[in-house]
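Hi team,

As requested, here is the filled-out complex form for the coenzyme A run. I kept the field names the same as last time so the parser does not choke. Let me know if anything looks off before we queue the next batch.

— J.
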Amino acid sequence: MAVNAVRNAGEMSDAPPPGIKPLPGRVTSPRLTLRRWHHDEAATLSAGVAASLEHLRPWMPWARFEPLTLTERVRLIEGWTRDWEEGGDVVFGIFLDGEMIGGAGLHRRSGPGTLDIGYWIHVDHVRHGYATELTAALTTTAFGIDGIQVVHVQTDEANEASASVPAKLGFRRSATNKRVPEAPAESGRLIDWTMTPDMWPHALHL
Ligand SMILES: CC(C)(COP(=O)(O)OP(=O)(O)OC[C@H]1O[C@@H](n2cnc3c(N)ncnc32)[C@H](O)[C@@H]1OP(=O)(O)O)[C@@H](O)C(=O)NCCC(=O)NCCS
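And here is what came back:
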């Protein structure tokens, strides 16, 4: 199969196998470019995560595995690329004038017809509206994909900064679910924020 051939060659391709429709690999907003990571950018990603680690640790479950070695980071990016090529999640770097200022993703974890948005912003770039801007751009992008009828953002009840993002954009607080906390500051109460095309003004322009 084409994906394996690419894998065996040790190369990452932007061309998906025939018949598979990957999620968009690049999204732009007025100030930001969101694009997939390439494995030769592992050091850039590591530097951004390292600078923000104490800011990320309370909320991002994956932060407990940091710092990754360069080899581990390359493998992580290669795994993201394979997932994307096979029609799964897409993981983006967020770039402002070419500088990496965070990470985001569109995730299929809530099942068919739904995409979940995740995000983090580099500690030196918070409070400039970037998370709000990229969430708006990803929501518009998601509703432009065939079959996507719901966009979710999930935030822990204790993470007020994160919850403000979907709240500001008019997402509806649809449910609160209990779960075992996955990061040190989490309460274990996960809020589901929901958007549908009829509630999304930007969908009019799709
Ligand atoms: C949550 C996070 C992504 C917000 O990013 P950001 O780019 O600073 O967010 P925005 O600038 O778009 O802020 C949107 C609103 O959120 C609220 N907000 C953001 N940071 C806040 C903070 N530290 N305290 C209180 N409210 C905050 C504000 O209401 C803000 O609007 P305002 O600036 O007009 O008042 C960022 O703080 C972060 O990366 N946190 C660590 C990782 C994380 O929690 N990720 C989300 C996991 S679900």
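Two things worth flagging: Residues 130 and 141 are 16 Å apart (CA to CA). The chain is about 30% helix and 25% strand.

Thanks,
J.
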